[in-house]
Known about the structure:
By secondary structure, this protein is mainly alpha-helical. The protein has one domain (12-50). The chain is 65% helix and 0% strand. It is built from three helices and no strands.
Amino acid sequence: MAQVIVGENEGIESALRRFKRQVSRADIFSDIKKKRYFETPIEKAKRKAIS
Length: 51
């Protein structure tokens, strides 16, 4: 889980930028995309064979 603590004199833009960077490093979006819909075992095997 990505979490950003905003400093006292920090702008919201810089905090948002740090949050986006943490999310991309944690690879959260790809995980969400994988779990968005049901994947059959055959589709899962095909995807793993490609990678």
